[in-house]
Specification:
three-stranded mixed beta sheet; alpha/beta; seven-stranded mixed beta sheet; 26% helix; 30% strand
C-alpha cells in the first residue's frame, strides 16, 4: 500500500457522497464499493449511516454480506457510522425481521436509541485518540452501545451512553462526523488503514 490508501465507502444506501469527500480531504483515495470485486481492491472501508435494515438486505442481495464478513474478520480496517455501527455489531438488541450484521466488534447495539428523526441533535463529543478538542457529532435516529466485550474499547460517550467503540482495526460511532466539515475522525481512520498496511 502506498502512503495514499484506497478506502471504499459501502455504496448500497446512505450518505456515501459525504464520506467520499471527507476521506479525500484526509488524503485517501476514496471510491464507492457496491460489488465484491470492488471490495477486493480497497485497503479499508467505511460503512455509512442510512437505514441499517435496508443496508443489510441490499448487502445480501448484491452478494456482499459474506465478502464483507470475510474481509472484516481477516482484519481489513473498517469504520461504521450510525447504521454502519449497527452493521459492525456482533449483536443487535432489537433487530428487525431478517436483519443481519457484518459483525467485527464485540458489542451489543440498540437501534434508534436516541429517538426518532425529529429528535435528531448535534453535540460536542470527546473521542479518545482525537486531538484538538471534542468533535461535533450529528445524531440522527442514532444507536447507542448497550455493552462491549473484553476485546472492544469505549472511545466516546454522550449522556451516559457509549457512542464510540474501537476493536483492533474496527471503529464505530453512533454519530455522523461526515456531516460537519470536521474531518479529524476520517483522518484518524485513514491513519488506522495506513498502520495496518
Amino acid at each position: 500500500m502506498s502512503d495514499t490508501p484506497v478506502i471504499g465507502v459501502l455504496a448500497l444506501q446512505g450518505d456515501v457522497r459525504e464520506h467520499l469527500i471527507a476521506l479525500a480531504s484526509a488524503d485517501a483515495l476514496a471510491r464507492p464499493v457496491r460489488r465484491p470485486e470492488e471490495l477486493a481492491e480497497v485497503d479499508g472501508l467505511v460503512v455509512p449511516g442510512g437505514e441499517s435494515t435496508t443496508m443489510s438486505k441490499l448487502a445480501a442481495l448484491f452478494g456482499m454480506l459474506e465478502p464483507l464478513r470475510e474481509r472484516v474478520a481477516a482484519g481489513m480496517p473498517v469504520y461504521g457510522t450510525c447504521a454502519g455501527m449497527i452493521l459492525l455489531a456482533d449483536k443487535i438488541l432489537d433487530p428487525r425481521s431478517g436483519q443481519e450484521t457484518i459483525g467485527g466488534i464485540d458489542m451489543i447495539v440498540r437501534r434508534n436509541a436516541f429517538g426518532r428523526q425529529n429528535e435528531s441533535f448535534e453535540a460536542a463529543v470527546d473521542v479518545a485518540g482525537i486531538d484538538g478538542g471534542p468533535v461535533e457529532g450529528v445524531f440522527i435516529r442514532a444507536p447507542w452501545v448497550e455493552s462491549v466485550g473484553a476485546r472492544a474499547t469505549v472511545v466516546a460517550e454522550h449522556g451516559g451512553h457509549i457512542v464510540g467503540v474501537r476493536q483492533e482495526n474496527a471503529l464505530a460511532t453512533s454519530f455522523h462526523p461526515e456531516l460537519t466539515g470536521d474531518h479529524r475522525l476520517h483522518a484518524y481512520f485513514v491513519d488506522m488503514v495506513r498502520a495496518s498496511g
